[in-house]
Write a structure and sequence with these properties.
Elements lengths: L1 H34 L10 H16 L4 H18 L10 H27 L16 H18 L4 H13 L4 H13 L18 E12 L6 E8 L4 E7 L12 E12 L2 E6 L4 E3 L11
Helix pairs in contact: 5-6, 5-7, 6-7
Length: 293
């Protein structure tokens, strides 16, 4: 009797298993019919992707030096900061605002430079009224002619600047000749202008430029001096000292030299010149075809 119960139980379990399999197959078929033939693709959330990147970055950083880790972190911060816009809009006006800021700063710097230049040279002060507007047309024509003549002789200041300076003298009450003489004298003694050696002491500057011929050279009295001698032109003679630390080219007697930005010094009422590192020396006749004869 126990064997019959065992067989009976075994048959019941087989039937139940068969029914469960059929139920699972029907459930799968219904699910496939409801969702389609293909299983929907699952996508990771933003948090999962960020966590995955952090894990990968951590694995990549393993074994790096501290300097390399800091460089990598700085690069990631720079990329993140660059991608973040100030207004976070698709159509940003950041470029326009940057251009406006740069233009405003440029205008301010130009105005500041103009103010500093005007403090040195009054002719550059644009806030002052132009004296040429206060003279008649006939006088202005003469003033412009004189300005062109002075400009052709010295080639330092522009014609417009010379014209304005002449007009200032005329407006102040001077006649045309006196105004021209005053402006020519100012141009002759202006810094950077080659002046006659006789006028070296009259230049209102600590530096002066001359051109002349080396008359004579003698033995320096100090080991710090490279050369010392006399340079002359048609108007006079001046002593010139060349310091070794200035690293200037050597002179020879008879050379025609053009010396720019030589430092002035006084001894017993006489003016002499010294060449420093800021000075510039050229030899106008060196390399010419007749110099080899």
């Amino acid at each position: 009797m126990s064997s019959k119960n065992a067989l009976g139980n075994e048959g019941t379990e087989t039937v139940l298993a068969t029914e469960q399999s059929a139920l699972d197959a029907w459930t799968a078929a219904e699910s496939e019919r409801a969702w389609g033939a293909e299983t929907p693709e699952l996508q990771a959330t933003y948090a999962q992707e960020r966590a995955a990147r952090v894990d990968v970055t951590y694995e990549e950083r393993r074994g790096l030096t501290l300097e390399a880790e800091e460089r990598l972190a700085a690069r990631e911060w720079e990329i993140e900061r660059t991608r973040t816009r100030y207004d976070r809009e698709q159509y940003s006006d950041r470029e326009a605002r940057t251009s406006k800021t740069v233009a405003t700063g440029s205008i301010a710097k130009r105005a500041d430079f103009q103010a500093r230049a005007a403090s040195v040279d009054e002719r550059l002060d644009k806030t002052k009224a132009d004296p040429r507007e206060r003279v008649s047309k006939s006088k202005l024509g003469v003033i412009n002619q004189q300005a062109a003549r002075i400009h052709g002789e010295f080639r330092k200041s522009s014609r417009a600047a010379l014209s304005r300076e002449l007009a200032e003298h005329v407006v102040a009450g001077k006649d045309g000749l006196s105004s021209a003489v005053a402006v020519m004298e100012a141009e002759r003694t202006r810094r950077g202008t080659v002046v006659p050696i006789s006028a070296v002491g009259d230049v209102n500057s600590s530096e002066v430029s001359i051109e002349g011929r080396v008359q004579t050279l003698w033995e320096p009295s100090s080991s710090k001096i490279q050369q010392v001698g006399l340079v002359e032109d048609e108007s006079g003679v001046v002593k010139v000292t060349v310091w070794k630390r200035a690293k200037q080219p050597l002179f020879t007697e008879g050379d025609v030299v053009s010396i720019h930005a030589a430092a002035k010094s006084w001894y017993e009422g006489r003016c002499s010149l010294a060449l420093t590192g800021w000075s510039r020396v050229t030899f106008p006749e060196r390399g010419r075809w007749w110099s080899s004869e």
